[in-house]
Structures are given as structure tokens and as C-alpha cells.
Design the sequence.
């Protein structure tokens, strides 16, 4: 019996030492920064970006509580109707546009009762309320980048073509035009559709009936011009020796870039004079020019040719 007691006593003593030391751990202090949530904003008002959206507190607590609170998401809530309404029995009409100082209450901070709040900064939150206005804007679609060579983008169309913006008058009244985010046209050679967001400068306080619109971008080939010189004038339907002066014709053509810049297409352009039924002699005639589909001849020189049939 005595031997059992001899071994048990040191273990009990050791457990008491550690338990007592743990219970007597001194509290520590730290600073916390967390966001402010605003609720019950008057229907005809907008809470502008000019506001205090964070508060800082200094707390004192046991280390084990500190570890726990660092893992929690703490937010301070402000009920604007409760805090700003001068007539609690009235309605939102009792709240006027302007700048307000809202006191910060320790009791509203969602904190464990075992944690002591030593200090709160700031002691007042600054908020600015403005009248809410609505205005309809046509949507503009800006481009960046350059399409593939020989192609061009026409003005894009938006669906819907316009949207209604809602926000503070000080912001809405300064918007000259409403744009989407830019569309990149780098190396584009065909039209396309794309959903793209509006480019709102203050998305936190300005809302839209549509945040994203469908944009149709039409892309077409550029029409370019080209001069082709000294195309030989051929003779058709003559058994006699023939001399044509001048011997060649110069034409100006216009068409899609890919056609005009294609050597194989250009090689199919030819000129001729049909001498069917004509006897020896000297004649003045026009030459015909045959060009491929999609090309347009805008000029030809000379207009008339001298033909000598021997």
C-alpha cells in the first residue's frame, strides 16, 4: 500500500503544477480591424463611397480566446434607419440627404463576453447620403487592337441598346456616355457576338438594369483600289495580220482586299477586241476588259484603239 502511494504522489503533483500554470496564463492584448455593414438604407437614398467602412478595436483576452477570434469573421452592423431617423415612429422621409456622424456602440460589436474591449476607433462613423436618381443611357462599345490586314470592324450593336442607371445624382449627372469594357479586335477577320460587362466607374454605388450586354461586332473586308498597267489587248476572230495601237490598256480596279491582293485573281484580267467580219483596213474601236467576280473596274485608258488589218 505504501509503495503504490509513493509512485502516485509525484504524478499528481506534476499534473497540478501544469494545470495551475495553464489556469493562471496572463491575458494578452491585440488590435482587430473589421468591416462595417450598413443596412436599412432609405429607398430614395444612396449611401455614397464617402463613408467609414472599417473600425479598429483593441481587446484583451486569454490566449486561447485570441486564437479562436482570429479565425472568426467579425462585422459591425449599422442600421441607418434606427441610427438616423429623428422620428422613430415615422418613416424614411424623416431622413434627409447629407453627411451624418453615427456613434459606434461597444455593445453592438459581436464579441465573446469573456473578451474585454479596451478601445474603439473611430468613435463615430461618417456616412453621406444622396438622393437616388435614374437615367437612361445609350451604350457605346469601344475597340482596342487592329483587325487582320485588309479587314475593318464596323460600329458594334448592343443588346439591349440602352440601360437605366441608378445612383447618386453627383455621379449620374457627370456620366457623359456609358461604355462597355473594350473589345479586342486583334487579328479578327470575321464578325462575332460576345457578352461583355458595362464599364461602370462606381459599381458599388451605381446599379444598372443590365450589368452585362450582348455585343454584335460586324467585320468586313476593306475595299481597296489598284492600277494594273499595260494589259495586252488581244485580237479575236481575225484571219488577217493585225496591228493594234497602243498595244496595251491600263485599268483601275476596286474590290475586297483579299481579291485585289491575290496575284492569281489579277492574272485572270484580260482585254480583247473582236474583229469578226471585219475586212482589211484601218479602224478605231474600243477594247473590252474582262475581270473576275467581286472586282469593279473604275477606269480604263486609253478609251479607243487604232486597228490596222492588212
Sequence:
Amino acid at each position: 500500500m505504501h509503495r503504490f502511494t509513493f509512485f502516485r504522489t509525484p504524478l499528481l503533483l506534476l499534473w497540478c503544477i501544469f494545470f495551475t500554470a495553464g489556469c493562471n496564463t496572463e491575458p494578452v492584448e491585440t488590435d482587430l480591424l473589421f468591416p462595417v455593414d450598413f443596412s436599412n438604407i432609405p429607398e430614395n437614398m444612396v449611401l455614397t463611397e464617402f463613408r467609414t467602412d472599417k473600425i479598429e478595436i483593441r481587446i484583451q483576452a486569454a490566449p486561447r480566446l485570441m486564437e479562436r477570434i482570429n479565425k472568426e469573421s467579425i462585422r459591425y452592423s449599422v442600421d441607418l434607419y434606427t441610427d438616423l431617423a429623428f422620428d422613430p415612429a415615422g418613416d424614411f422621409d424623416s431622413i434627409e440627404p447629407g453627411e451624418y456622424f453615427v456613434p459606434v456602440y461597444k455593445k453592438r460589436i459581436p464579441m465573446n463576453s469573456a473578451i474585454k474591449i479596451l478601445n474603439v476607433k473611430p468613435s463615430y462613423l461618417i456616412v453621406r447620403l444622396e438622393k437616388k436618381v435614374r437615367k437612361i443611357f445609350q451604350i457605346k462599345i469601344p475597340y482596342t487592337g487592329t483587325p487582320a490586314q485588309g479587314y475593318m470592324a464596323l460600329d458594334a450593336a448592343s443588346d439591349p441598346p440602352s440601360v437605366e442607371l441608378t445612383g447618386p445624382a453627383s455621379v449620374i449627372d457627370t456620366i457623359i456616355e456609358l461604355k462597355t469594357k473594350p473589345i479586342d479586335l486583334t487579328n479578327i477577320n470575321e464578325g462575332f457576338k460576345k457578352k461583355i460587362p458595362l464599364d461602370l466607374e462606381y459599381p458599388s454605388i451605381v446599379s444598372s438594369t443590365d450589368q452585362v450586354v450582348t455585343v454584335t461586332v460586324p467585320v468586313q473586308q476593306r475595299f481597296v483600289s489598284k492600277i494594273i498597267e499595260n494589259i495586252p489587248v488581244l485580237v479575236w476572230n481575225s484571219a488577217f495580220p493585225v496591228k493594234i495601237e497602243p498595244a496595251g490598256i491600263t485599268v483601275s480596279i476596286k474590290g475586297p482586299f483579299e481579291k485585289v491582293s491575290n496575284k492569281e485573281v489579277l492574272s485572270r484580267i484580260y482585254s480583247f477586241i473582236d474583229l469578226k467580219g471585219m475586212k482589211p483596213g484601218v479602224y478605231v474601236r474600243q477594247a473590252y476588259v474582262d475581270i473576275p467576280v467581286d472586282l469593279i473596274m473604275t477606269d480604263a485608258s486609253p478609251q479607243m484603239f487604232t486597228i490596222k488589218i492588212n
Q: What stands out?
A: Helices lie at 2-23, 63-69, 80-84, 169-172, 257-260, 263-266.
